[in-house]
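Instructor's aside before we start: the two examples that follow are unrelated to each other. I chose them only because their records fit on one page, so don't look for a connection. First example below.
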Amino acid sequence: MDGIKVLVFDVGGSVFDWQTATRAAVSALAEERGVEVDDEAFCFAWRRRMFEQLAEVRAGTRPWQNADSLHRAVLDELAEQYPALELSTEDRDSLNRAWHRMGVWEDFPDSLKRLRERYIVAILTVLSLSIVVDSSRHAGIDWDAYISCEMLGVYKPEAEAYQKAVRLLGAEPNESMMVAVHPPDLLAAQRAGLKAGYVKPKLLEMGSQGETSSFEVLAEDYRDLADKLGC
C-alpha cells in the first residue's frame, strides 16, 4: 500500500492461537487428575480476567505488571473456582507457560515472509516480550521487531502505545498500519493516526466482533492481506 512503511501486528488471537495452547494444557492437567473440567470456560475466564486486571493497571489502581504476572495472578483466582484441579503452585507456574508455546494460524508464516519483503513488520502487543519471543520461536517465525507494551510504559489501547511503537521503527503513525482481528484494537489505532488492516478471525473470542467499515484493508485471511498490500 502506498505511503505505508511499517506494519504492526497484534498477536494474541490475531496471529497466535492462544485457545488451543491453553486449553490443551488445562485438559492435560485435568486428565492427569482424573477430573472433568470445562477447559474452554476455564481459559476464556483466564483471558477475560487478565484483561480486566490490565485495565486496572492502565487506570493506575493496580501496580504496573506485565502479562505473565497478570496471567499468573488470575490462576490464583481460578484455583479457588476449580478446586477439583487441586492446583499447586507448581501446577500454576506450569500452566502459565502455556502462553509461551502458542502456535500460529496455518496461513501466517508464508504470508509473513511475503509482507517482510516490502514492509517493516513488527509485533505490537500487550503480551509480555517473553511470551511473544518464546511463541515465535515455538512456531518457527521471525519478525523485524518485537515490541511489547511493557517496554513502552503504556498499554494499548492508549494512543501513545501505538505512536511510540511505530516511531521506534522510524515511521510516523500515518506511515503505519495496525493489523489485527479485533475491531476495538484497530479503532484505537486509527484514533492514534495509524491505518487499520482487519483480518477475519479464525476463532471468535472477546473483542473479535465489531464494526469494520472504516478500516483501510479488510482481508479474509493472511494470504488475502498480503495480496491486498501488494506483496
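Example two begins here.
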Amino acid sequence: ILPFSSNTTNMAKIQATPFRLALLQLGGLTASKASNISIAAKAVASAAASSPKPQLIVLPEIWNSPYAVSSFREYSEKVPEVGSKWRSLKESEEGETIKALREMARSSGCWLIGGSIPERDEKTDDIYNTCTVYDPEGTLVAVHQKVHLFDIDIPGKQTFKESDTLTGGSHLTTFTAPFGKIGLGICYDIRFPEMAMIAARQGCIAMIYPAAFNTTTGPMHWTLLQRARAVDNEIYVAMCSPARHPEAAYQAYGHSSVVNPVGDVVVEADHEPTTLYADIDPELLATTRRSIPVTVQRRFDVYPDVSSSFQ
C-alpha cells in the first residue's frame, strides 16, 4: 500500500497499489439485447485472458440497448440492492443483463464496471441510466445512477433530451477495491467538476466514466474534459465509449481513453471496436501532488469546499 496524505482539511489519504485497467470499446451492438450481451461477454473474457491480466475491466455507456430515449424503457431492467451476490436472487429480482454481468465478473476473476444500462425502478416506474460494479465473485458492490442528464440543443448539429424518458440520480458513488478507491460518473457527469473533486477529496485514485459522446460533442470536448478533470484533481480519468456504428441513429464518438494526473493522454482509441489497456500508477499521482500541490493549496477560507458534506 502506498499512502499519501494531505494536511488540507477533509482531504482523505490515497491508499492504492498499481493496477491494470481495460476499457472495452464494444462494436457490433444492435437492437438485440441478447446479441449485445454475447458481444460484451466475449470481450470481457478476451480482456481477462490478456497478459498481464487487468484487475479492472470497464464496459461503455448504454451498451445493451440502442442509445435512444424511445428505447430506454423497453430495454430497462430491475437493478438489485448493493451487496447482493451471484445466484442469490430469484429470477424476478434482476434482469438478464445484470445476471450476465455477474457471470462475466465471476468467470473473468476481475473487478467489472458494467458500463451503463437502462434501469427501471419498480416502485416509482422511473427509468435511470445506471452503472453497476461487481467484484470477482459476482457480488454487486456499487450502483451509480447518472446524475446529470444529457439535454442539449446545438443548432443545426445535435438535439437530444434524456429527460424525456430518464430520471436523474441523486447520489454520488465510489467503491473500494483491493487496488484502491474509484469514483464513478456516466458520460455527461464529466462536465460537472464538483463530482470529480469530491471523489478526489474522498481518496479516489481515479474517476471512471462509461460514456457515449457523439460525433458533434466528442471532437469539441471529449479529451478536453478528461484532461481538465485529471489536472483539476491530480487523479487518473478514464472514459469508455462504444465503437461507432455507421448504421446507428446515434453516432458514438468512440475514442475511449485514459488520462494521467499530469494531464497526459496515456492511451486513446479511434472509433473502431477495440480494447485499451492502461497501467494505473499511484506513485505518479503522489509525485504530481508533491510537485504541484493544488490539493493542499485550496483556500476554503475564501470559497466553499464542495466536498465537506460528503466526508
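The radius of gyration is 18 Å.
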